[in-house]
Protein 1
Amino acid sequence: MLVYDVQRIREILEDFYLLSGIHIVFFDTHSTELASYPKGQSKFCTMIRSSPTGYSLCKQCDLKAFDSAVKDQPPHVYRCHTGLLESVAPVYDGDTLIGFVMAGQGREVTRESGQWEEIQANCHDLPVDFSELYPHFKKLPGVSEKSLGAAVRMVGLCIAHSYKNHLLSRGRGDFCAALQQYIENHYDTPEKMRLSSMAQTFGVSNSTICHLCKRELGVTVAQLIRRCRVNAAKNLLMNTGIPISEIASMVGIPDFNYFTKVFKAESGFTPSRFRALA
């Protein structure tokens, strides 16, 4: 349930491009492009991708880069299948992956010669007119491994900050409502009440959930879960004759003694006393 402020991400990418002249893209966790600046591909890459084979090679190269970026120490700097220099870095909110930043499609400034010949060799099986491709190659920005690594790292941090701020700004509304609904739907399943499971479901970090819950609802996540379980237990105690020990398990607290302690802390009564008074 990742929620992006795409307009803000576009603004970050545009600001970066205006400073650097380097094409930059943000992808979601499914490798789908969400924003880029400038929009679309360079003329060089458009020509390479114009054939099904070229397009497939570019997509395979991107997917391999995303995989390497997660496995390796970011940023991951590499040469694409044509020989251009590119870099990609995963973007995290805490320990939760929220997307990828990719920058490049550039000529390597530290190599004075040989790049064009390498590109011709790498692309010799593609239906490309090299006489038409060459001027577009020369227009590509000059980049270095260090500059591209710094680029994706810096932009990734800006997007992560923007993502968290956007999430916090909308937390008073649908996020906390969704969190409460999730707890009401799954309070009887202890595995789903783990903070890590909630974070994975909502696509945020553990700390973000805790911060939002405390800030917007005034309680901790654990308190919210206990309150929901006790309310469910109250309903069962008032409207059914189910044994209290079974009710404890039904609401996700199979330890009867602990259930009694939690119930009394929340309601002021033991479960048996509450049923007698109901």
Protein 2
Amino acid sequence: MFFWIAITIFAHLLNAIVFIIDKHLVSKTVLRPIVYAFYSSIFQFVYLILIPFGFIVPENKYIAACLFTGILFTFILAVFYKAMQAAESTRVIPVVGGLTPVFTFFIAYLFIGERLGLNQSIAFIIFILGGFLLSFKFNRERSRVIKGIGWAVLAAFLFAVYYTLMKYIFLHVDFLSGFITIQFGSFAGALILLLFSKNRKSIVGSVKTDKAARKETVYLFISNKLLGALAGFLIPYAISLEGSSVTMINSLQAVQYVFLLIFAVILSKKFPLFLKEQIGERIIKRKIAAIILIGLGLLVISWA
């Protein structure tokens, strides 16, 4: 129990760092969501270095499931970055992070028969409430927010499908073989994007930028993706572990908001142009209450 929780928390710590750098990159560059999805999916190929460590080709029916899951990941990224483009990332992340575990709960319940125990159910509700309190912000630009939320809700639903499919695969295929085959699917998804001329022009055009700015961005992007790759390995690994719950793993994203808050407070003071976090008495009280809730949720789940 404690092992998959610890792995998930560490992965969400890494994802918090990745998110902050992503936000910085998005603010500096204007890329179509398809372009960012393409490069993110192509980068999944880095996982193929794991092939010598025990990869076995799965049965045909599971190969199909793995490839579909990987391809789905590419198009989820396109939807997610479309949401980030349509509204502020600080509005999109809470919606995706809050709804993904809710959708996962129902999808995993219906299709793979996952059931939460009493303590897990209580912790699940606590994490959702804590994540909501910690990350939700009001916005007067309602038309812009509604547009972004539409894409964010779709992304949350698709992420839930993706992680549930991953759990299904790991119930029938060993972790390394299933994980690597999924990455082949992600790479195939990136190639599918190239079939459309509009996408090809955007992807090729994205590298024709100012040389100095491009060099800095490329180094930061690659470093960020390597960090994301580690997190992207740890979460599926946690999902594959016996006794783990894909619903609970997704709900633990609330912990990521705690890390985001800590990093945001630090960076907003030292690097205000990099990331700015609004700090006020009411906001601090709400976020302290949320952190206490999340801590309570961790205690509850540890007793499950």
